[in-house]
Specification:
Elements (H helix, E strand, L loop, with lengths): L7 H7 L2 H8 L18 E5 L5 E4 L3 E2 L7 E2 L8 E6 L6 E6 L5 E6 L9 E4 L4 E5 L3
Antiparallel strand pairs: 1-2, 1-9, 3-4, 4-8, 5-6, 6-7, 7-8
Family: Belongs to the MsrB Met sulfoxide reductase family.
InterPro entries: Met_Sox_Rdtase_MsrB, Met_Sox_Rdtase_MsrB_dom, Mss4-like_sf
Catalytic activity: L-methionyl-[protein] + [thioredoxin]-disulfide + H2O = L-methionyl-(R)-S-oxide-[protein] + [thioredoxin]-dithiol
Length: about 130
């Protein structure tokens, strides 16, 4: 997939205020408020900014954190990670490889088979339900 680059002002015009704050400025939505934290609809979660496929509902689980959580992305090449030292702590930030949108963070306390918990902001995602 080709890299998508746009000026910040172009993103500001295309995204909602909350999407812009989270995806382009690295913000976080409040726990238990996002559209997808409790969703059980089968489908693929795509990047809200560029439509790249990121997570399959088969990898989604209830972590109790208040954000949608997944134990793996649809493809290891879909997600980029980097160290995040904000808020006085060390975390691993995850971003969409295609458009560099901030998605959330990954933690080493998830279930098998990966042991990872991708804790993702709902506003950074767009669910495309699977055809029945």
């Amino acid at each position: 997939m080709d890299k998508l680059e746009k000026p910040l002002e172009a993103w500001r015009e295309e995204l909602s205020d909350q999407q812009f704050h989270v995806c382009r400025l690295g913000g976080t939505e409040r726990a238990f408020t996002g559209e997808y934290y409790a969703t059980k609809t089968p489908g693929i979660y795509h990047c809200a900014c560029c439509d790249a496929p990121l997570f399959d509902s088969d990898a989604k689980y209830d972590s109790g954190s208040g954000w949608p959580s997944y134990f793996q992305p649809v493809d290891d090449q879909a997600i980029a990670s980097k160290d995040d030292f904000s808020h006085g702590m060390h975390r691993i930030e995850v971003r969409c490889v295609r458009c560099d949108a901030h998605l959330g963070h990954v933690f080493p306390d998830g279930p098998a088979p990966t042991g990872l918990r991708y804790c993702i902001n709902s506003v950074a995602l767009k669910l495309k339900p699977k055809a029945e």
